[in-house]
Design brief:
The protein is of the alpha+beta class and about 130 residues long. It has helices at about 5-10, 55-60, 90-105, 125-130; strands at about 15-25, 25-30, 35-40, 50, 65-70, 80.
């Protein structure tokens, strides 16, 4: 049964993932600073779980009892499972993996260590009133 430890182990197995608790007892998993999964720890061993899904599967998943649009972000195809046992382990693993892939694909790319920083373009407003000599 997919409990909070199972979810944590799976999420942390993906490349570049860190965990964070930005809002009280909400355990969030992030890739390059972007959340791809969240679990409400105060729910106990089988927490509510929030995940990103594809537009193609969003409405299909909402047909399943115990799955609803996630508060605040449902319009962006995020779902919330009433608890981590709404789906069989294999299906839940697939949804978590897909959420990671969707968010990872849009997350900002990391710069290589030691790569030179881009110089910003000169501010044109400050040069506007200057006269050439």
């Amino acid at each position: 049964m997919p409990d909070v430890d199972w979810i944590r182990k799976l999420c942390l197995s993906f490349p570049g993932v860190i965990e964070d608790m930005p809002w009280g007892d909400d355990l969030c998993f992030k890739v390059r600073g972007k959340i791809f999964a969240g679990a409400v720890l105060s729910d106990g061993r089988f927490p509510r779980l929030t995940l990103k899904c594809s537009p193609e599967t969003f409405h299909e998943l909402l047909e399943i009892e115990g799955i609803s649009p996630a508060p605040y972000v449902g319009r962006y195809q995020w779902i919330q499972l009433a608890d981590s046992n709404v789906l069989p382990s294999r299906e839940l693993e697939s949804l978590i993996r897909k959420s990671y892939e969707l968010v990872s694909a849009k997350a900002p790319k990391e710069k290589a260590a030691g790569a030179p920083k881009k110089k910003s373009a000169p501010n044109r407003k400050s040069q506007k009133g200057r006269r050439s000599r």
